[in-house]
């Protein structure tokens, strides 16, 4: 029974570690979603700017406007490259946190199974002891009955 209590205490610690890992994972997932949303918004802006550029080429627009739009697209490209690195970094962090969460979940399940097996073993052991005791009582009653 003492071993089961010890395993229960370890399980409690592992469950707390799992909760922390879960919170960390959800935080990293939120961070990733924010960066990815910013990235998507920037890509949409670039797409719209390029569509405007194509329309300007089809119509007669002053060269200054084309230069401004070209420099704007170039600025967007630079921001996209920077944000792409942030997205990859956030994805990597999120995957690491997910891996830690999976490991914590496995540890919790492992200790739950150990406790379950230990309880089953204790029940079986108790049952065997009771059967052995009952057998001993029966043998004693039989032998005392025979001697009379």
From TrEMBL:
The keyword Transport applies. Signal peptide: none annotated. Transmembrane segments: none annotated. InterPro entries: Flag_assembly_chemotaxis_eff, Flagell_FliJ. It is found in: Cell membrane. It is a peripheral membrane protein. The keyword Cell membrane applies. It comes from the Bacteria. GO terms for biological process: bacterial-type flagellum organization; bacterial-type flagellum-dependent cell motility; chemotaxis; protein transport. Residues 66-100 form a coiled coil. GO terms for cellular component: bacterial-type flagellum; plasma membrane. Keywords: Bacterial flagellum biogenesis, Bacterial flagellum protein export, Cell membrane, Cell projection, Chemotaxis, Cilium, Coiled coil, Flagellum, Membrane, Protein transport, Transport. Its main location: membrane. This is Flagellar FliJ protein. It comes from Oceanobacillus halophilus. The gene is fliJ.
